[in-house]
Design brief:
With 445 residues, the chain is mainly α. The chain has a single domain, classed as MFS general substrate transporter like domains (Growth Hormone, Chain: A, Up-down Bundle), CATH 1.20.1250. The chain is built from 18 helices and two strands.
């Protein structure tokens, strides 16, 4: 009898998790690809936009980063609204408004208009990524969390793998109705988010109880499993939503995220211009295709590292070592002007920053739940996104002052190293594992 019960439980576990991955992850992945394309396509637009609007390196860095100031302002309130109103309604609202604003950015005439639209775009998209992280916590247990997040965050390199060649081709060939190609780039890549918003409203269930693709037994099983984990979190380290905002561990993670975001978004926004600099005289289309190489390497690393982290239920080393490795690669970038070696180092940077991301974002839900998770995840990602403002702007300022892009990139490399060191000395926390087992420590391999 006991054996049959165990077999039945295992069967429903495998079946339910498989259904969740098949029905939720691909759609969320597609939405995140759209989100990240809209977030970083300014880097490709800059290849022709900067000259037409007479934008300096410092102004471009500010325009790229000011998005994250808008994101920071509404991040926590937006995530709390998602938890209260439900993912289906709130995610659809976010997608529709940011897609509209992203497309309108293609009509700006001055640098100051670009600043305003980028800031408003950040306001519109605020809460999207932490909202998705919170949403995943409604469906996946801790031991599937990093891999589920990795499948979602795979949208970051895939956005470049798919978007970079398309962006390069648009810049070289699309000049419809007398509008510049960079304008069409922003318009055409903004519209999919509007469509995604409509689809999200009809296709995205807010909770397992609303999932038509699960039968009653499966709904009850995953609900019971998640409630059991939440209960253990409350027993081992109870944290209220208000306590979360002053929790030392939350702010420690936010510090890691800031240093990581400083380097990661510097890499993302400046990669097209850096590749153009390395490949002197190359077309925008060729630049777009070669940007794919580092992102493919980062994608593979992201999946493998997150899978290993989930299997070992270890986060600290899986996060700290890769991001420190990426920081060293970024520091070495200025020591060579060989196109092949530069692309190899850029691939190492992508491997480091991307493979550490899903492990990092699996950490908050190890000790937070409910409204505390909504507030904590939003706070951590909002501070991390301030790094997304500081990084590109610092590189633009340094390049404007010194005439060297590599000096600015060295600042980003140091920031990634700092993020890795902070991750390696991160204190442990008890994590719920399996029924009838004691919680384990995340710093144990």
């Amino acid at each position: 009898m006991g054996k049959e019960s165990t077999t039945g439980a295992g069967s429903i576990e495998v079946r339910t998790i498989r259904k969740l991955k098949i029905r939720l992850i691909p759609f969320l992945f597609a939405l995140y690809v759209i989100a990240f394309v809209d977030r970083i396509n300014l880097g490709f637009a800059a290849l022709t936009m900067n000259r037409e609007l007479a934008i300096t390196s410092q102004q471009f860095g500010f325009a790229a980063g000011v998005f994250f100031l808008g994101y920071f302002v509404l991040e926590v309130p937006s995530n709390l609204m998602l938890h209260k109103l439900g993912a289906r309604v709130w995610i659809a609202r976010i997608l529709f408004t940011w897609g509209t604003i992203a497309a309108l950015t293609g009509f700006v005439q001055t640098a100051h208009q670009l600043y305003i639209l980028r800031f408003v775009l950040g306001l519109a998209e605020a809460g999207y990524f932490p909202g998705i992280l919170l949403y995943l916590s409604y469906w996946f247990r801790q031991r599937e969390k990093a891999q589920a997040i990795a499948l979602l965050l795979a949208g970051i390199p895939v956005a470049s793998i798919l978007g970079a060649p398309v962006s390069g081709i648009i810049l070289d060939h699309v000049h419809w109705l007398g509008l510049s190609s960079w304008r069409w780039l922003l318009i055409l890549e903004g519209l999919p988010a509007v469509v995604g918003g409509v689809l999200a409203y009809f296709l995205l269930p807010s909770r397992p109880s609303q999932a038509k693709f699960l039968n009653d037994d499966e709904k009850n099983w995953i609900t019971h499993e998640l409630e059991r984990e939440d209960k253990r979190k409350h027993e081992t380290q109870p944290v209220s939503a208000m306590q979360t905002l002053i929790n030392r561990r939350v702010w420690y993670l936010a510090g890691i995220g800031f240093a990581h975001g400083f380097g990661t978004y510097t890499f993302s926004f400046w990669l097209p211009q850096l590749m153009k600099l390395v490949l002197t005289g190359s077309s925008n289309s060729l630049v777009g295709f070669l940007v794919v190489i580092p992102n493919v390497v980062g994608l593979v690393g992201m999946i493998l590292v997150s899978r290993h982290s989930d299997r070992k239920l270890e986060r600290r080393y899986h996060m700290g070592i890769p991001v420190a490795f990426g920081g060293v690669a970024l520091l070495l970038l200025g020591a060579t002007h060989s196109p092949a070696l530069s692309i190899a180092l850029l691939s190492c940077v992508a491997l480091g920053v991307y493979s550490s991301l899903p492990v990092f974002f699996a950490l908050p839900s190890e000790f937070l739940t409910g409204f505390s998770a909504a507030a904590g995840i939003a706070l951590i990602t909002s501070v991390a996104n301030l790094g997304g403002f500081a990084g590109p702007y610092t590189v633009g300022f340094v390049r404007q002052s010194t005439g060297s892009l590599y000096t600015g990139l060295a600042c980003a490399g140091i920031s990634l190293l700092l993020s890795g060191i902070l991750a390696l000395i991160l204190p442990g926390v008890a994590v719920p594992d399996r029924p009838n087992q004691q919680p384990i420590n995340t710093t144990q391999v």
